[in-house]
Design a protein that fits this description.
Helices cover 46% and strands 11% of the residues. By secondary structure, the protein is α/β, with parallel strands linked by helices. It is globular, with a radius of gyration of 28 Å.
């Protein structure tokens, strides 16, 4: 980079890149981070503490009444009063009340789960060390009820915060630092999901970069990141990956931001990689970012296979009356077979026959040509919101994904999984680009990221991106999360036609 900016009014001859922070930053008044917290942070924190206290009180009360009825000894009353305090302290030690975790979802939930495990271990160790006889039934009931209720209350609290953020409230002001391309990409990703709580208020770029980000108050002429932080009252500085803003410059910037209570986040430039695959390890005095390979060991995949088949069998047995009822409705209201079969491609490009309840008239394939010009789907898949070939019963089944229930048989056979990429047609696979073929490394799923992220409203590129994200970041935890979100997506019926 050849363009530079003058740093400081009293040093006209000292020139440095716009984003290099001087060792002594002028005109900056240090402010404690707690003092700069916006009001919503304190409200959220106290609501979280109150919810955790309520969960612990309910958990203790349920355990006492279940274990002892109304004949509770004084010792257990004292222990029951101390447990809610210990629970809140445990969540605090697990960083459950830190600002950065508010609204983060998985991180908040993990802190509560860790607290439950830690508190159970602490009670067990204290009981053994003091040789006190604490009823196991009381502990086994009190702490799990507390954890489950705390998770539920935190979930609703997070949902309420998300609603506020979609309305533009409770956001953290972000100053993005970087070159045009990297800064634009980082800004786009930070603002893509309002629920994450980031609002970019300015972009600081090297002088000489062309205008193009189009953000009000663009800081092309700012010579100092810290001046930009003060000018725009930024809560967070987000640094886009750049080889020139590293090492000592980035270190001094972190020191200066620390004095002002401003958070620093750095984008490593790695996309579509989940947190569990990324770790920072010290090597030769450097903090190196390690990117783990996607899970490929036989153990987790064997667990997934067993889990899929057991759950599919249980669901088939439980849903048997519903399956019979749907089959009768399909057969009695339209001419043709009850089940619709279609060749799909599974793991390792192995073809299989996928089962669904028939939702269209029997001549649907013959009428496809006359409707092909009216597709509401993406560039590869044909979808029509008001498809005249769909029967009345079929429209209802599609809206709530009931037509896909027979695919539990495919899961039981081992051809599909409960969670995975969307099962593609053979004609789709023929059009795959080189990157798209990674979708075939795992079994297709009855549901997946595409199901909980828009379904038929997604473009082809978005669908492929979600499938690749799943393949690269698969874990049993991710599967369970997708199954949980699938229930909400199906009940809402959005994106299904």
């Amino acid at each position: 980079m050849t363009d530079h900016a003058v740093v400081g009014d009293n040093a006209p001859d000292r020139r440095r890149p716009v984003w290099v922070v001087p060792q002594t930053v002028p005109a900056i008044v240090p402010r404690p981070s707690r003092a700069t917290e916006p009001p919503w942070v304190a409200v959220y924190r106290w609501a979280a503490i109150g919810g955790d206290l309520l969960a612990a009180v309910v958990g203790v009360s349920v355990a006492l009444l279940t274990r002892f009825g109304y004949q509770v000894g004084a010792g257990y009353l004292i222990f029951g009063c101390l447990l809610p305090i210990a629970w809140v302290a445990s969540v605090a030690l697990a960083r459950g009340y830190e600002t950065r975790s508010f609204g983060a979802g998985a991180e908040e939930f993990r802190s509560i789960l860790r607290s439950g495990v830690a508190l159970t271990a602490l009670v067990a160790i204290a009981s053994y060390a003091t040789k006190s006889e604490i009823a196991r039934g009381f502990v086994v009931l009190a702490i799990p009820v507390t954890v489950l209720l705390a998770l539920l209350l935190r979930y609703f609290l997070r949902r309420d915060l998300s609603r506020h953020r979609y309305r533009g409230r409770c956001m953290r002001r972000v100053l993005v630092v970087g070159r045009n391309g990297e800064a634009a990409t980082l800004r786009e990703r930070l603002e893509k999901r309002p629920a994450d709580g980031f609002r970019v208020v300015a972009v600081c770029r090297p002088r000489g970069e062309t205008r193009g980000i189009g953000l009000p108050g663009d800081l092309l002429d700012e010579a100092d990141i810290m001046a930009a932080v003060n000018r725009h009252s930024a809560d967070v500085v987000a640094v886009a990956s750049d080889p020139e803003l590293t090492g000592q410059s980035l270190r001094r910037l972190s020191w200066a931001l620390e004095q002002c209570g401003v958070e620093l986040i750095v984008s490593p430039g790695i996309i579509e990689v989940a947190g569990p695959r990324i770790s920072v390890r010290p090597v030769a005095g450097l903090s190196l970012l390690h990117l783990e390979r996607p899970s490929a060991s036989a153990g987790p995949h064997l667990l997934k296979n067993v889990f899929d088949r057991v759950v599919a069998l249980v669901l088939l047995l439980l849903a048997a009356p519903l399956l019979i009822g749907i089959g009768l409705a399909v057969g009695l209201t339209s001419r043709g077979p009850v089940l619709f079969t279609q060749r799909r491609v599974g793991r390792g490009n192995t073809a299989f026959t996928m089962l669904k309840f028939r939702t269209m008239c029997v001549d649907a394939e013959a009428r496809l040509a006359e409707l092909s010009g009216h597709s509401d789907g993406n560039a590869v898949l044909f979808k029509l919101r008001a498809d005249p070939r769909v029967t009345k019963v079929g429209g209802f089944l599609r809206r709530y994904s009931l037509d896909e229930l027979p695919q539990l048989i495919n899961v039981l056979r081992g051809e599909m999984s409960l969670v995975g990429p969307r099962p593609p047609l053979e004609s789709e696979v023929e059009r795959y680009a080189a990157d798209d073929t990674r979708r075939m490394l795992v079994k297709p799923g009855l549901t997946g990221l595409w199901q909980v992220s828009g379904r038929s409203d997604l473009s082809w590129d978005e669908s492929v991106l979600l499938d690749l994200r799943y393949v690269d970041n698969w874990s049993m935890t991710l599967d369970l999360l997708i199954l949980w979100k699938t229930a909400r997506a199906v009940l809402k019926g959005s994106g299904a036609y």
